[in-house]
Amino acid sequence: MMMLDVRAVSHRYGQKQVLDGVTFSVKKGELFGILGPNGSGKTTLLKLISKELPLASGEIVMSGRLLSELSAKQWAQLAAVLPQAVETAYGYTVKETVALGRYAHQHGLFPTWTAEDETVVQEVIAAVGLADKIDEPLERLSGGERQRAYLARALAQEPQLLLLDEPTNHMDISGQVRLLDQLAQSARTRGLTVVAVFHDMSIASLYCDRVLVLKEGKTAALGAPADVMTPRLLNDVFAAPVVRQAHPVAAKPMFSFVPQQQRKKAPLIGGLHPSFLDDAVVLVAHKPLRVLSSALVGSGFQWVTHFVNRHVGLDYDNPYADEDMRRYLEQHGFSVAQTIGMMTAVDVHDVVWRWEDKEAFSVAVMVTAGVGNAVDAARAWQHQPLAAKPGTINMVIIIDGTLTEAAFVQAVMTATEAKAKALADHRVYDPETGTVATGTSTDSLAVAATQTGRTFAYAGTATELGRELGRLVYEATIEALDRYERRRGRR
Ligand SMILES: Nc1ncnc2c1ncn2[C@@H]1O[C@H](COP(=O)(O)OP(=O)(O)OP(=O)(O)O)[C@@H](O)[C@H]1O
Protein backbone atom coordinates (compact mmCIF):
# COMPACT_ATOMS: atom_id res chain seq x y z
CA MET A 1 0.00 0.00 0.00
CA MET A 2 1.12 3.52 -0.73
CA MET A 3 1.85 5.75 2.24
CA LEU A 4 0.61 8.77 0.36
CA ASP A 5 -1.50 9.19 -2.75
CA VAL A 6 -1.97 12.64 -4.16
CA ARG A 7 -4.49 12.56 -6.97
CA ALA A 8 -5.21 15.42 -9.35
CA VAL A 9 -4.76 18.02 -6.65
CA SER A 10 -5.33 21.64 -7.64
CA HIS A 11 -5.44 24.76 -5.52
CA ARG A 12 -6.35 28.40 -5.95
CA TYR A 13 -5.77 31.38 -3.72
CA GLY A 14 -8.72 33.54 -4.83
CA GLN A 15 -8.42 33.68 -8.60
CA LYS A 16 -4.83 32.56 -8.61
CA GLN A 17 -4.23 28.95 -9.63
CA VAL A 18 -1.10 27.77 -7.79
CA LEU A 19 -1.45 23.99 -8.15
CA ASP A 20 -2.87 22.35 -11.22
CA GLY A 21 -3.66 18.63 -11.36
CA VAL A 22 -0.67 17.34 -9.38
CA THR A 23 -0.60 13.54 -9.03
CA PHE A 24 1.99 11.32 -7.36
CA SER A 25 2.31 8.47 -4.88
CA VAL A 26 4.92 7.88 -2.20
CA LYS A 27 5.78 4.38 -1.02
CA LYS A 28 6.41 3.46 2.59
CA GLY A 29 10.05 4.05 3.47
CA GLU A 30 10.64 6.37 0.56
CA LEU A 31 12.51 9.66 0.76
CA PHE A 32 10.58 11.85 -1.64
CA GLY A 33 11.68 15.35 -2.65
CA ILE A 34 9.64 18.25 -3.96
CA LEU A 35 11.61 20.73 -6.03
CA GLY A 36 10.75 23.86 -7.96
CA PRO A 37 11.41 27.58 -8.15
CA ASN A 38 9.94 30.11 -5.71
CA GLY A 39 6.18 30.29 -5.97
CA SER A 40 5.82 26.99 -7.86
CA GLY A 41 3.44 25.64 -5.21
CA LYS A 42 5.66 23.42 -3.05
CA THR A 43 4.61 24.81 0.33
CA THR A 44 0.97 24.91 -0.74
CA LEU A 45 1.18 21.22 -1.60
CA LEU A 46 2.65 20.39 1.83
CA LYS A 47 -0.03 22.49 3.53
CA LEU A 48 -2.74 20.55 1.69
CA ILE A 49 -1.21 17.24 2.75
CA SER A 50 -0.91 18.44 6.35
CA LYS A 51 -4.55 19.64 6.39
CA GLU A 52 -3.43 23.18 7.08
CA LEU A 53 -5.29 24.21 3.94
CA PRO A 54 -8.66 22.72 2.94
CA LEU A 55 -8.57 20.52 -0.12
CA ALA A 56 -10.96 21.87 -2.73
CA SER A 57 -10.01 19.86 -5.79
CA GLY A 58 -8.57 16.35 -6.08
CA GLU A 59 -7.97 13.66 -3.50
CA ILE A 60 -5.31 12.91 -0.91
CA VAL A 61 -5.11 9.44 0.62
CA MET A 62 -2.80 8.76 3.53
CA SER A 63 -2.08 5.17 4.48
CA GLY A 64 -5.24 4.07 2.70
CA ARG A 65 -7.55 6.65 4.29
CA LEU A 66 -8.97 9.76 2.72
CA LEU A 67 -7.50 12.84 4.34
CA SER A 68 -10.96 14.31 4.84
CA GLU A 69 -11.90 11.29 7.02
CA LEU A 70 -8.98 11.76 9.42
CA SER A 71 -9.44 13.82 12.60
CA ALA A 72 -6.60 16.11 13.68
CA LYS A 73 -5.49 13.57 16.28
CA GLN A 74 -5.69 10.65 13.84
CA TRP A 75 -3.66 12.68 11.37
CA ALA A 76 -1.06 13.41 14.06
CA GLN A 77 -0.78 9.70 14.87
CA LEU A 78 0.17 9.06 11.25
CA ALA A 79 2.12 12.11 10.23
CA ALA A 80 4.20 14.98 11.53
CA VAL A 81 5.17 18.21 9.89
CA LEU A 82 8.12 20.53 10.19
CA PRO A 83 7.07 23.78 8.56
CA GLN A 84 9.33 26.29 6.82
CA ALA A 85 9.24 28.84 9.63
CA VAL A 86 8.25 27.97 13.16
CA GLU A 87 7.31 30.69 15.65
CA THR A 88 9.54 30.32 18.66
CA ALA A 89 7.47 29.87 21.78
CA TYR A 90 9.48 31.67 24.46
CA GLY A 91 10.18 30.08 27.80
CA TYR A 92 10.15 26.44 26.69
CA THR A 93 13.26 24.30 26.97
CA VAL A 94 14.37 21.87 24.28
CA LYS A 95 12.94 18.97 26.26
CA GLU A 96 9.60 20.68 26.87
CA THR A 97 9.30 21.58 23.20
CA VAL A 98 10.06 18.03 22.09
CA ALA A 99 7.70 16.59 24.73
CA LEU A 100 4.81 18.38 22.98
CA GLY A 101 5.35 15.92 20.12
CA ARG A 102 4.05 13.12 22.36
CA TYR A 103 0.56 14.65 22.47
CA ALA A 104 -0.80 12.37 19.75
CA HIS A 105 0.20 9.32 21.80
CA GLN A 106 -1.42 10.38 25.06
CA HIS A 107 -4.85 9.26 26.12
CA GLY A 108 -7.62 10.44 28.39
CA LEU A 109 -8.42 13.77 29.90
CA PHE A 110 -5.39 13.91 32.20
CA PRO A 111 -2.64 12.16 30.27
CA THR A 112 0.30 10.88 32.23
CA TRP A 113 3.92 10.97 31.20
CA THR A 114 4.98 7.37 30.64
CA ALA A 115 8.42 5.79 30.68
CA GLU A 116 7.98 5.25 26.95
CA ASP A 117 7.32 8.97 26.40
CA GLU A 118 10.51 9.77 28.30
CA THR A 119 12.61 7.26 26.32
CA VAL A 120 11.35 8.50 22.97
CA VAL A 121 12.01 12.13 23.87
CA GLN A 122 15.54 11.40 25.08
CA GLU A 123 16.28 9.34 21.96
CA VAL A 124 15.12 11.87 19.41
CA ILE A 125 16.93 14.72 21.17
CA ALA A 126 20.13 12.67 21.03
CA ALA A 127 19.46 11.79 17.40
CA VAL A 128 19.35 15.44 16.32
CA GLY A 129 22.51 16.15 18.36
CA LEU A 130 20.97 18.32 21.07
CA ALA A 131 21.54 16.09 24.11
CA ASP A 132 23.85 18.66 25.66
CA LYS A 133 21.24 21.41 25.21
CA ILE A 134 18.25 19.49 26.55
CA ASP A 135 17.42 22.00 29.31
CA GLU A 136 18.33 25.10 27.32
CA PRO A 137 15.48 27.52 26.55
CA LEU A 138 14.74 27.60 22.83
CA GLU A 139 15.42 31.30 22.42
CA ARG A 140 19.03 30.71 23.44
CA LEU A 141 19.65 28.27 20.56
CA SER A 142 20.99 29.20 17.15
CA GLY A 143 18.64 29.09 14.14
CA GLY A 144 19.97 25.70 13.07
CA GLU A 145 19.75 24.22 16.56
CA ARG A 146 16.20 25.47 16.95
CA GLN A 147 15.29 23.84 13.62
CA ARG A 148 16.75 20.59 14.96
CA ALA A 149 14.69 20.91 18.15
CA TYR A 150 11.52 21.25 16.06
CA LEU A 151 12.60 18.27 13.99
CA ALA A 152 13.02 16.29 17.23
CA ARG A 153 9.47 17.33 18.20
CA ALA A 154 8.20 15.98 14.88
CA LEU A 155 10.18 12.75 15.35
CA ALA A 156 8.85 12.39 18.93
CA GLN A 157 5.44 11.97 17.34
CA GLU A 158 6.85 8.70 15.90
CA PRO A 159 5.09 9.42 12.64
CA GLN A 160 4.88 7.07 9.68
CA LEU A 161 5.06 10.06 7.38
CA LEU A 162 7.22 13.10 7.96
CA LEU A 163 6.56 16.29 5.98
CA LEU A 164 9.41 18.76 5.88
CA ASP A 165 9.54 22.19 4.28
CA GLU A 166 13.18 23.00 3.52
CA PRO A 167 14.43 21.05 6.52
CA THR A 168 18.04 22.14 6.15
CA ASN A 169 17.28 25.81 5.72
CA HIS A 170 19.27 27.24 8.63
CA MET A 171 21.77 24.46 8.97
CA ASP A 172 25.47 24.34 8.33
CA ILE A 173 26.86 21.56 6.16
CA SER A 174 27.49 19.08 8.96
CA GLY A 175 24.03 19.76 10.41
CA GLN A 176 22.47 19.12 7.01
CA VAL A 177 24.36 15.90 6.49
CA ARG A 178 23.57 14.67 10.02
CA LEU A 179 19.89 15.44 9.66
CA LEU A 180 19.53 13.87 6.24
CA ASP A 181 21.58 10.80 7.15
CA GLN A 182 19.33 10.43 10.18
CA LEU A 183 16.20 10.65 8.02
CA ALA A 184 17.61 8.22 5.47
CA GLN A 185 18.41 5.78 8.26
CA SER A 186 14.93 6.09 9.76
CA ALA A 187 13.51 5.47 6.29
CA ARG A 188 15.61 2.31 5.94
CA THR A 189 15.24 0.89 9.43
CA ARG A 190 11.80 2.02 10.58
CA GLY A 191 10.11 2.44 7.20
CA LEU A 192 9.62 6.15 7.90
CA THR A 193 8.33 7.90 4.80
CA VAL A 194 9.71 11.38 4.22
CA VAL A 195 8.26 14.01 1.90
CA ALA A 196 10.46 17.10 1.88
CA VAL A 197 10.72 20.35 -0.02
CA PHE A 198 14.29 21.06 -1.09
CA HIS A 199 15.89 24.06 -2.69
CA ASP A 200 19.30 22.48 -3.04
CA MET A 201 19.18 20.20 -6.04
CA SER A 202 22.37 18.35 -5.15
CA ILE A 203 21.02 17.50 -1.70
CA ALA A 204 17.76 16.34 -3.25
CA SER A 205 19.68 14.21 -5.73
CA LEU A 206 21.90 12.77 -3.03
CA TYR A 207 19.17 11.80 -0.58
CA CYS A 208 15.87 11.40 -2.42
CA ASP A 209 14.71 8.14 -3.93
CA ARG A 210 12.41 10.11 -6.20
CA VAL A 211 11.63 13.75 -6.80
CA LEU A 212 8.68 15.76 -8.04
CA VAL A 213 9.72 18.89 -9.92
CA LEU A 214 7.04 21.58 -9.98
CA LYS A 215 6.84 24.43 -12.45
CA GLU A 216 4.06 26.99 -12.07
CA GLY A 217 1.96 24.52 -10.11
CA LYS A 218 2.27 21.71 -12.64
CA THR A 219 4.37 18.55 -12.64
CA ALA A 220 7.45 19.18 -14.75
CA ALA A 221 9.06 15.84 -13.85
CA LEU A 222 8.57 12.89 -11.52
CA GLY A 223 11.07 10.08 -10.99
CA ALA A 224 14.52 9.10 -9.76
CA PRO A 225 16.86 12.11 -9.58
CA ALA A 226 19.42 10.60 -11.97
CA ASP A 227 16.69 10.04 -14.56
CA VAL A 228 14.65 13.21 -14.37
CA MET A 229 17.09 15.87 -13.17
CA THR A 230 18.62 16.53 -16.54
CA PRO A 231 20.37 19.84 -17.19
CA ARG A 232 17.79 20.57 -19.88
CA LEU A 233 14.81 20.12 -17.54
CA LEU A 234 16.42 22.09 -14.73
CA ASN A 235 17.47 24.84 -17.12
CA ASP A 236 13.90 25.06 -18.28
CA VAL A 237 12.28 24.92 -14.83
CA PHE A 238 14.69 27.27 -13.05
CA ALA A 239 15.43 29.45 -16.09
CA ALA A 240 19.13 29.41 -15.24
CA PRO A 241 22.04 27.37 -16.60
CA VAL A 242 22.63 24.25 -14.54
CA VAL A 243 25.64 21.96 -14.70
CA ARG A 244 25.34 18.30 -13.80
CA GLN A 245 28.43 16.63 -12.41
CA ALA A 246 29.38 13.36 -10.83
CA HIS A 247 29.64 13.26 -7.07
CA PRO A 248 33.15 12.23 -6.08
CA VAL A 249 32.02 9.32 -3.89
CA ALA A 250 28.26 8.77 -4.21
CA ALA A 251 26.69 7.53 -7.41
CA LYS A 252 24.43 10.56 -7.64
CA PRO A 253 24.52 13.56 -9.89
CA MET A 254 25.35 16.94 -8.38
CA PHE A 255 24.20 20.27 -9.72
CA SER A 256 25.54 23.74 -9.80
CA PHE A 257 24.29 26.94 -11.34
CA VAL A 258 26.73 28.76 -13.55
CA PRO A 259 26.95 32.52 -12.96
CA GLN A 260 26.45 34.41 -16.23
CA GLN A 261 29.59 36.44 -15.77
CA GLN A 262 31.71 33.39 -15.19
CA ARG A 263 30.28 31.73 -18.25
CA LYS A 264 31.37 34.57 -20.45
CA LYS A 265 34.83 35.14 -19.08
CA ALA A 266 36.32 31.92 -17.80
CA PRO A 267 37.95 29.83 -20.48
CA LEU A 268 36.82 26.23 -20.35
CA ILE A 269 40.17 24.59 -19.97
CA GLY A 270 41.39 26.80 -17.13
CA GLY A 271 38.70 25.34 -14.86
CA LEU A 272 38.91 21.81 -16.18
CA HIS A 273 40.89 19.09 -14.46
CA PRO A 274 40.59 15.34 -13.94
CA SER A 275 38.85 14.07 -10.81
CA PHE A 276 38.80 10.51 -9.53
CA LEU A 277 36.31 7.86 -8.55
CA ASP A 278 37.71 4.73 -6.92
CA ASP A 279 38.21 3.09 -10.28
CA ALA A 280 37.93 5.85 -12.86
CA VAL A 281 39.29 9.19 -13.90
CA VAL A 282 36.64 11.69 -14.88
CA LEU A 283 36.61 14.97 -16.77
CA VAL A 284 33.54 17.17 -16.45
CA ALA A 285 32.96 20.04 -18.85
CA HIS A 286 30.77 22.94 -17.76
CA LYS A 287 28.92 22.87 -21.03
CA PRO A 288 28.40 20.24 -23.70
CA LEU A 289 31.33 19.74 -26.02
CA ARG A 290 31.18 18.47 -29.55
CA VAL A 291 33.18 15.26 -29.63
CA LEU A 292 34.47 12.89 -32.25
CA SER A 293 35.37 9.66 -30.51
CA SER A 294 36.14 5.99 -30.92
CA ALA A 295 35.24 5.23 -27.29
CA LEU A 296 33.27 2.21 -26.09
CA VAL A 297 30.36 4.46 -25.09
CA GLY A 298 29.71 7.67 -27.01
CA SER A 299 31.40 6.86 -30.31
CA GLY A 300 31.13 8.99 -33.43
CA PHE A 301 30.07 12.62 -33.22
CA GLN A 302 28.37 13.52 -29.95
CA TRP A 303 27.63 16.39 -27.66
CA VAL A 304 28.78 15.42 -24.19
CA THR A 305 29.76 16.89 -20.86
CA HIS A 306 31.49 13.92 -19.22
CA PHE A 307 34.49 11.75 -20.06
CA VAL A 308 34.96 8.63 -17.94
CA ASN A 309 38.03 6.41 -18.26
CA ARG A 310 37.34 3.36 -16.13
CA HIS A 311 39.88 0.91 -14.80
CA VAL A 312 39.19 -2.80 -15.28
CA GLY A 313 41.42 -5.75 -14.42
CA LEU A 314 43.89 -7.17 -16.95
CA ASP A 315 41.79 -10.33 -17.11
CA TYR A 316 38.64 -8.37 -18.03
CA ASP A 317 37.10 -10.29 -20.89
CA ASN A 318 33.52 -9.34 -21.58
CA PRO A 319 32.02 -9.65 -25.06
CA TYR A 320 29.40 -7.10 -23.99
CA ALA A 321 31.89 -4.53 -22.70
CA ASP A 322 29.87 -1.63 -24.12
CA GLU A 323 26.74 -2.72 -22.24
CA ASP A 324 28.81 -3.25 -19.12
CA MET A 325 30.26 0.24 -19.49
CA ARG A 326 26.79 1.76 -19.93
CA ARG A 327 25.61 0.01 -16.79
CA TYR A 328 28.66 1.23 -14.92
CA LEU A 329 27.96 4.81 -16.02
CA GLU A 330 24.30 4.57 -15.00
CA GLN A 331 25.18 3.10 -11.62
CA HIS A 332 27.59 5.96 -11.02
CA GLY A 333 25.02 8.62 -11.88
CA PHE A 334 26.33 9.60 -15.30
CA SER A 335 23.95 10.30 -18.13
CA VAL A 336 24.95 7.72 -20.73
CA ALA A 337 23.76 10.03 -23.49
CA GLN A 338 26.15 12.75 -22.33
CA THR A 339 29.20 10.71 -21.45
CA ILE A 340 32.17 9.30 -23.32
CA GLY A 341 33.10 6.00 -21.66
CA MET A 342 36.47 4.31 -22.10
CA MET A 343 38.15 1.36 -20.35
CA THR A 344 41.73 0.75 -19.41
CA ALA A 345 43.73 -1.77 -17.39
CA VAL A 346 46.11 1.00 -16.36
CA ASP A 347 45.94 2.48 -12.87
CA VAL A 348 43.93 5.64 -13.58
CA HIS A 349 45.93 7.57 -11.01
CA ASP A 350 48.78 7.45 -13.50
CA VAL A 351 46.78 9.71 -15.80
CA VAL A 352 48.68 12.58 -17.40
CA TRP A 353 46.93 15.93 -17.87
CA ARG A 354 48.61 18.61 -19.96
CA TRP A 355 47.21 21.88 -21.18
CA GLU A 356 48.27 24.99 -22.97
CA ASP A 357 46.51 28.34 -23.10
CA LYS A 358 47.27 30.24 -26.28
CA GLU A 359 45.82 33.55 -27.24
CA ALA A 360 43.61 32.14 -29.98
CA PHE A 361 42.76 28.78 -28.42
CA SER A 362 43.48 26.40 -25.56
CA VAL A 363 44.22 22.69 -25.82
CA ALA A 364 44.26 20.05 -23.12
CA VAL A 365 45.21 16.39 -23.31
CA MET A 366 44.42 13.57 -20.89
CA VAL A 367 46.28 10.29 -21.44
CA THR A 368 46.46 6.93 -19.73
CA ALA A 369 48.92 4.52 -21.30
CA GLY A 370 49.39 0.78 -20.99
CA VAL A 371 51.24 -1.09 -23.71
CA GLY A 372 50.71 -4.72 -22.76
CA ASN A 373 49.07 -5.18 -26.18
CA ALA A 374 51.43 -3.01 -28.20
CA VAL A 375 51.00 -3.47 -31.93
CA ASP A 376 52.79 -2.26 -35.02
CA ALA A 377 49.86 -1.23 -37.20
CA ALA A 378 51.88 -1.89 -40.36
CA ARG A 379 52.46 -5.50 -39.35
CA ALA A 380 49.30 -6.28 -37.44
CA TRP A 381 48.36 -8.61 -40.32
CA GLN A 382 51.15 -10.95 -39.15
CA HIS A 383 49.45 -11.40 -35.76
CA GLN A 384 47.15 -14.17 -34.78
CA PRO A 385 43.62 -12.69 -34.66
CA LEU A 386 43.89 -10.15 -31.87
CA ALA A 387 41.75 -10.39 -28.81
CA ALA A 388 40.42 -7.02 -27.64
CA LYS A 389 42.24 -6.83 -24.34
CA PRO A 390 42.23 -3.83 -22.06
CA GLY A 391 45.96 -2.90 -22.25
CA THR A 392 45.45 0.33 -23.94
CA ILE A 393 46.28 3.99 -24.60
CA ASN A 394 43.25 6.20 -23.98
CA MET A 395 43.30 9.83 -24.88
CA VAL A 396 40.90 12.75 -24.49
CA ILE A 397 41.76 16.00 -26.26
CA ILE A 398 39.82 19.16 -25.45
CA ILE A 399 40.02 22.30 -27.55
CA ASP A 400 38.61 25.73 -26.70
CA GLY A 401 37.53 26.76 -30.17
CA THR A 402 35.21 25.93 -33.05
CA LEU A 403 36.32 22.98 -35.19
CA THR A 404 34.99 22.08 -38.60
CA GLU A 405 34.47 18.37 -39.24
CA ALA A 406 37.65 18.35 -41.28
CA ALA A 407 39.50 19.87 -38.32
CA PHE A 408 38.13 17.12 -36.07
CA VAL A 409 39.47 14.44 -38.41
CA GLN A 410 42.79 16.22 -38.75
CA ALA A 411 43.06 16.51 -34.98
CA VAL A 412 42.59 12.72 -34.81
CA MET A 413 45.36 12.27 -37.39
CA THR A 414 47.74 14.67 -35.68
CA ALA A 415 47.15 13.03 -32.31
CA THR A 416 47.61 9.52 -33.71
CA GLU A 417 50.85 10.47 -35.46
CA ALA A 418 52.22 12.13 -32.32
CA LYS A 419 51.27 9.11 -30.23
CA ALA A 420 53.00 6.72 -32.68
CA LYS A 421 56.13 8.88 -32.50
CA ALA A 422 56.02 8.78 -28.70
CA LEU A 423 55.88 4.98 -28.78
CA ALA A 424 58.81 4.86 -31.18
CA ASP A 425 60.92 7.25 -29.12
CA HIS A 426 60.02 5.33 -25.98
CA ARG A 427 61.10 2.12 -27.71
CA VAL A 428 57.85 0.27 -27.30
CA TYR A 429 57.93 -2.87 -29.42
CA ASP A 430 55.26 -5.13 -30.82
CA PRO A 431 56.11 -8.37 -28.95
CA GLU A 432 54.99 -10.60 -31.84
CA THR A 433 56.72 -8.88 -34.75
CA GLY A 434 59.64 -7.40 -32.84
CA THR A 435 59.12 -4.10 -34.65
CA VAL A 436 58.38 -0.66 -33.20
CA ALA A 437 54.77 -0.43 -32.04
CA THR A 438 52.43 2.33 -33.24
CA GLY A 439 49.74 1.87 -30.63
CA THR A 440 47.82 -0.94 -28.96
CA SER A 441 45.01 -3.05 -30.31
CA THR A 442 42.33 -1.25 -28.31
CA ASP A 443 43.34 2.42 -28.11
CA SER A 444 40.58 5.00 -27.73
CA LEU A 445 40.60 8.63 -28.70
CA ALA A 446 38.12 11.46 -28.16
CA VAL A 447 38.61 14.92 -29.62
CA ALA A 448 36.28 17.49 -28.05
CA ALA A 449 35.72 21.15 -28.84
CA THR A 450 33.71 23.89 -27.15
CA GLN A 451 32.46 25.13 -30.56
CA THR A 452 32.74 28.70 -29.30
CA GLY A 453 35.29 31.33 -30.18
CA ARG A 454 37.63 31.19 -33.17
CA THR A 455 36.88 28.72 -35.96
CA PHE A 456 39.54 26.26 -37.05
CA ALA A 457 39.06 24.78 -40.50
CA TYR A 458 42.10 22.52 -40.07
CA ALA A 459 44.09 20.97 -37.27
CA GLY A 460 46.90 19.34 -39.23
CA THR A 461 50.56 19.84 -38.45
CA ALA A 462 50.73 22.90 -40.72
CA THR A 463 48.41 24.82 -38.37
CA GLU A 464 49.19 26.45 -35.04
CA LEU A 465 46.49 24.31 -33.41
CA GLY A 466 47.90 21.12 -34.93
CA ARG A 467 51.45 21.96 -33.88
CA GLU A 468 50.41 22.57 -30.29
CA LEU A 469 48.24 19.48 -30.27
CA GLY A 470 51.05 17.29 -31.64
CA ARG A 471 53.47 18.55 -28.98
CA LEU A 472 51.06 18.05 -26.07
CA VAL A 473 50.01 14.56 -27.20
CA TYR A 474 53.64 13.55 -27.66
CA GLU A 475 54.75 14.87 -24.28
CA ALA A 476 51.73 13.52 -22.41
CA THR A 477 52.11 10.07 -24.01
CA ILE A 478 55.81 9.89 -23.13
CA GLU A 479 55.01 10.89 -19.54
CA ALA A 480 52.16 8.34 -19.33
CA LEU A 481 54.48 5.60 -20.66
CA ASP A 482 57.07 6.58 -18.04
CA ARG A 483 54.46 6.29 -15.29
CA TYR A 484 53.29 2.94 -16.65
CA GLU A 485 56.84 1.62 -16.62
CA ARG A 486 57.57 2.99 -13.17
CA ARG A 487 54.50 1.27 -11.77
CA ARG A 488 55.37 -2.03 -13.49
CA GLY A 489 58.91 -1.71 -12.17
CA ARG A 490 57.56 -1.36 -8.65
CA ARG A 491 55.63 -4.61 -8.84
N1 LIG B 1 -2.11 32.69 1.58
C1 LIG B 1 -1.88 33.01 0.30
N2 LIG B 1 -2.68 33.86 -0.35
C2 LIG B 1 -2.47 34.17 -1.63
N3 LIG B 1 -1.46 33.69 -2.36
C3 LIG B 1 -0.61 32.86 -1.78
C4 LIG B 1 -0.78 32.47 -0.41
N4 LIG B 1 0.22 31.62 -0.09
C5 LIG B 1 0.96 31.47 -1.21
N5 LIG B 1 0.47 32.20 -2.21
C6 LIG B 1 0.99 32.26 -3.58
O1 LIG B 1 0.92 30.97 -4.15
C7 LIG B 1 2.06 30.69 -4.95
C8 LIG B 1 2.69 29.41 -4.47
O2 LIG B 1 3.21 29.61 -3.17
P1 LIG B 1 3.98 28.50 -2.38
O3 LIG B 1 4.36 29.06 -1.05
O4 LIG B 1 3.22 27.23 -2.42
O5 LIG B 1 5.27 28.34 -3.30
P2 LIG B 1 6.64 27.62 -3.01
O6 LIG B 1 6.92 26.78 -4.21
O7 LIG B 1 6.62 26.93 -1.70
O8 LIG B 1 7.63 28.84 -2.98
P3 LIG B 1 9.01 29.09 -2.13
O9 LIG B 1 10.07 28.33 -2.85
O10 LIG B 1 9.21 30.56 -2.30
O11 LIG B 1 8.80 28.66 -0.73
C9 LIG B 1 2.95 31.92 -4.83
O12 LIG B 1 2.77 32.70 -5.99
C10 LIG B 1 2.45 32.64 -3.60
O13 LIG B 1 2.60 34.02 -3.74
Overview of this structure, please?
The chain has 491 residues and is an alpha/beta fold. Helices cover 31% and strands 29% of the residues. The protein has 13 helices and 24 strands. Strands 13, 14, 15, 16, 17, 18, 20 and 23 form an eight-stranded mixed beta sheet that branches. Strands 6-7-8-3-9-10 form a six-stranded mixed beta sheet, with helices on both faces. The longest helix is centred in the C-terminal third of the chain and has 27 residues, at 464-490. The radius of gyration is 29 Å and the shape is elongated. The two termini are 57 Å apart. The site of adenosine-5'-triphosphate has 11 residues, from strand 2 and helix 1.
- Which segments are poorly predicted (pLDDT under 50) over 5 or more consecutive residues? 261-266
CA-based shape? elongated
* Largest sheet, strands/sense/barrel: 8 strands, mixed
Rg (C-alpha, Å): 29 Å
Helix segment tally = 13
Domain ABC transporter: 4-241
Keywords: ATP-binding, Nucleotide-binding, Translocase, Transport
Protein name: Adenosylcobinamide amidohydrolase
InterPro entries: AAA+_ATPase (IPR003593), ABC_transporter-like_ATP-bd (IPR003439), AdoCbi_amidolase (IPR002808), P-loop_NTPase (IPR027417)
